[in-house]
Write a structure and sequence with these properties.
By secondary structure, the chain is mainly beta. The protein is 7% helix and 36% strand. The chain is built from 4 helices and 28 strands. Strands 6-5-4-1-7 form a 5-stranded antiparallel beta sheet, with no helix packed on it. It has a 5-stranded mixed beta sheet with strand order 18-17-16-28-21, with no helix packed on it. It has a 4-stranded mixed beta sheet with strand order 22-25-26-27, with helices on one face. It starts with 6 loop residues before the first helix and ends with a strand.
Amino acid sequence: MVGRLDIRRIGVSIAAIMAVAAMAFGFALTSGQIASAQGTQNFSIGSLVATTSQTDLREQPAASGAVVVAMPVNAQAIVLGGQFNDGWYWLNYNGTQGYAQGKSFVPVDANYQPVQEATSTPTSAPKPAATDTPSATGTPASSGTQVAIPSPTTDITTPSTPGDYSGLWLGEMSTGGNVRVGPGLDQKILKGWWAGRRVLLYESSVDSTGGLWYRVSDPPEAPMWVHSSLVKKIAPVKYEGAKYKGKWINVNITQQIVTAYQDGTPVKVTLASTGIVARTVNPTTGQRDDNRTELGVWKIYYKLPKQDMKGGSKAGGDYYDLKDVPFPQYFHISGEGLHGTYWHDDFGHPRSHGCVNLSTPMSEWFYNWDKIGTVVWVHN
């Protein structure tokens, strides 16, 4: 997790920050690099994996993430989500959750035996992957188990054309399942999402077999689709109309949705992760740090292509030290701003120290679209 850049903690003055704004930065991390995981195995949600060497389980899917626990050789874990960034997975190891890179693991069965890949040639149409057919418990069905596939939520009416934001719905994964690059079981699996992961239903499409699919990403993000049986509706996306003139940004804390407006027309809608109240007590003050994103009407006053961010407390358990955070745009004097996020994929839920976390492609879009002085309205 990360959020506001705590200027006081890292000893940087506002004047110094404003001076840095004039410097040119080059951002090397691309969405293609984030999406690719060269030399990394693909693990499905709910599968068992075991370490091939001593491996650190970290609190973020990045090498800079704090170590939660060290996993010895042959340690077994359950895959909860992924893959993220450069081949990172969200794992459960003996009740402890964290992130590790897939290259350090192999798939195993309940007896720690390596899982053999099938070599026979199918004689009929391929069957749906286990994680496209949810079980009653929300975990992938085991081999040979017959499960009932929930019917699609037919009362969700989603746009049928790209770029139409007039009827978007906020949804949630009702069970863990595959995220595919297109609408159909024949499409490549991009990654897996867990039960409870929030989604925006941008577009619906029916595949060649009559199956209903939802597009859950929007350009410039890579195409991502999930089967309708894996999704339950939460609420229609709330729009605000022409509250301000020209370009302005709406941050809805309740829905965890950020919308770019041109007068009263939404031109980009995306999930976000805003600030939370820290779960741990600050050992210095004896109180819980309030990391909620500040409500109010602000304006972007400072932006740059990337920046290192650190803050929190090691003793308090919320320390972070992240390199090259992409496209930060500050709107509050405390250091709160919009920025890209490569260390988690849990958009739709509060996770930050006060900032508004966006996917890296979306943060770049906002960075190129808005300007210094653009209004940012943060509200419940």
